[in-house]
Amino acid sequence: xxxxxxxxxxFDLDGTLADTSGDLLDAANAQFEAEGLGSPLTxxxxxxxxxxxxxxxxxxxxxxxxxxxxxxxRRYLSLLEHYEANLSRKTVFYPNVIEVLGNLRxxxxxxxxxxxxxxxxxxxxxxxxxxxxxxxxxxxxxxxPERKPDPKPLLLAIxxxxxxxxxxxxxxxxxxxxxxxxxxxxxxxxxxFDQTGIGQEFPDAPLIGEFAQVESFxxxxxxxx
Length: 225
Known about the structure:
Blueprint: E1 8-11, E2 18-19, H1 21-33, H2 46-49, H3 53-64, H4 71-85, E3 92-93, H5 97-106, E4 110-114, H6 119-128, E5 137-139, H7 151-161, E6 168-172, H8 175-184, E7 187-191, H9 198-201, E8 207-208, H10 213-222
Parallel strand pairs: 1-4, 1-6, 4-5, 6-7, 7-8
Antiparallel strand pairs: 2-3
Helix pairs in contact: 1-3, 1-4, 3-4, 7-8
């Protein structure tokens, strides 16, 4: 059966759809505060936050001179518990996300999320932000054994959304996203809303600085077919 809508826009979550850094940093700092070590992580560590819980714990431990290989592992589950209980206190979508997603869907695009965030946290966050209805599929880090940059999660997100790979674009903000798209042989659009400098790392990839630009990029991209 041929899908009526074959074009699919797949979005990374943290750093692409939403600025989750505030709640992530709070969850990491809570682990240090529980041990009387203060809050070593600040807003200056927001890009580290987007690399995940272990990266934040390691960064904080290094600032305190406490780093060892087991430091993050011993505190990671506690961090996740704190984060799950406080998912959306500070997290917000980047400007224009809801409007753009609605317009894309109205224009016939399938939309999906493919994230290296645990799937139950990803779906819960999107639900708390009131946007579950704007996505056709959700794939998280534990949906299948493989994770980005392996192409399998991305390919599954496209399949479950009802898209086809050659007519799909991954919108993301990291090298992991870039490599996942290349491995899956689909389109790539990099975003740099948090001034990470990702565009300098991959100058061959299209880059935008505002989410509102997603719509025009995808429209022009689809016109090539």
